[in-house]
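Lecture 7 notes: from sequence to structure.

We start with a single chain of 318 residues. Read the sequence below before looking at the structure.
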Amino acid sequence: MVLVYSENKNLTIEMLSKATEIAKEQKKKVTSAIIGKPDETLAKEYISYGADQVFIAETSLESFKAEEYADILVNIVKETGAETIFIGSNKNGKELSARLGGKLNAGCVVDSNNIYLKNNKLIAERVVYSGNAIAVEQFNSTPAIITVPSKAFDPLKKDDSRKGDITKKKIDSEKSASKIVKVQEMKTEGVNVEDAEIIVSCGRGFKNKDDIKMVQELADVLKGKTVGCSRPIAADLKWMSEDHWIGLSGHKVKPKLYIAAGISGQIQHIAGMRDSGIIVAINKDPEALIFKSADYGIVGDLYEVLPKFTNAVKEKMG
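Now the structure, written as tokens:
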């Protein structure tokens, strides 16, 4: 049995794609877990995206707590007999997977972007050393726990005709000693670069904060309207919020089109956008590292190139 869990619906749907592939090779089934209120609509949606069964753990918990959620997942693993466990690699998922691994005495690979079977052994690959190498890790025992980042796998095509079982069971864990004193929502600008199909990003090649409007203009013309940036723009200069920051320590993205203007291409940034469909780089330095990752490169001053690029797109798109 392959078990999939994340409180993030989109991430669960993406993981179901790989889970069904692994389960098919092992001639096993896929179970998606829901912790909290019995949402049958969500359960049916998971089935339409590949789950054979949805296990709903009804609990009185009002918010996420890693200690208690780990206890609940241990119960789900025992109930389903799961041998492979996929957990969404967001903030909650990383903490949850580590605790689950400790409770189950199981191996755990974090942030895997490639999972497959070789000689009947489960293999997980992950990027290490800031993108300079790939670690290939093999599980020699079960259960095996793997956390999967957003955009690692494309979801299956939705099939509303699929049938599956929905199991509900009330599961409560022992109350942990820790308490959530306050939950403060992070202030954002409403930017979701991780879901964008077109991103135009700016880097240290820009001389002034006001000049970033050139990037926004191009993004608007492309109907993408999503602007990203490299680390210096968000972390050092504070010209943009961290919502826009793309890179190893920022957001990892997978748009159909990624345009990098004035970005040198340090490995930390490349690690965040390397899986983009088409990458276009604009930089006045012909030796800039960004060109090694780009499908198309324009060598030139961004202050000259961007306005012409924007006008050319306007003409092409009418």
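The mean pLDDT is 93. Keep this in mind for problem set 3.
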